[in-house]
Every structure is written in C-alpha cells, then in structure tokens.
Amino acid sequence: MANNSTVFVGIIHWCKDAVGDAAQDLVWYKEMGDKIAVNMATLQCGVGRVKVDDRYGIVDLSFGCARTLFTPPDAGEEDPWD
Q1: Where are the domains of the chain?
Q2: How many CA atoms are closer than 13 Å to the CA of 67, on its beta-carbon side?
Q3: Residues 69-74: contacts with CB under 8 Å, at least 24 apart
Q4: Which of 12, 51, 55, 59 lies at 20 to 30 Å from 5 by C-alpha?
Q5: What is the pTM assigned to this prediction?
Q6: pLDDT, tens only, 19-62
Q7: Residue 18: what are its φ and ψ, rounded to 5°?
C-alpha cells in the first residue's frame, strides 16, 4: 500500500451469544460484543439487524456470496472475543 493511499475503515460490532447460520435460519441475540476496525476492501457481504422486543434478529441476504455462521466457544476454552 502506498504511503499516500486512502483506506476506508469500517467497524464490525460482534453479536454476543448468536449461534447458527443467519443465511439459512433466524438467529437471535440480546447483547452486542466487542468492536473491531477493518479495511472495507476486505469485506464481501453485509448483514443487518432488526430489533423485536428485547432482542435483535439478523437479516442476512448474502446467501451464495458468503456464509454467516455463529458458533459458541468450545467448552473449557476461552472465547477470543470476550
């Protein structure tokens, strides 16, 4: 990357305790996790969310573009996002 180049940075806000493939089924969560900054050029697809009562549903229209899969940490291992 050249010293004088422009980079667009986006913020990813992780969904805490979301489990499942949001492109295939409804995935719900109640809390947000950590935030990280990423180079926007590395993103393939975007997803959104909608609030229903006290939880959020993930809206994922990326089927065929990317796979959205939330998995819980293995038992006995630390969650790297906590």
Answers
A1: 9-60
A2: 5
A3: 69/20, 69/21, 70/15, 70/18, 70/19, 70/20, 70/21, 70/22, 70/27, 71/19, 72/17, 72/19
A4: 12
A5: 0.49
A6: 888 778 888 888 888 899 988 888 777 777 788 898 888 777 66
A7: -85, 130
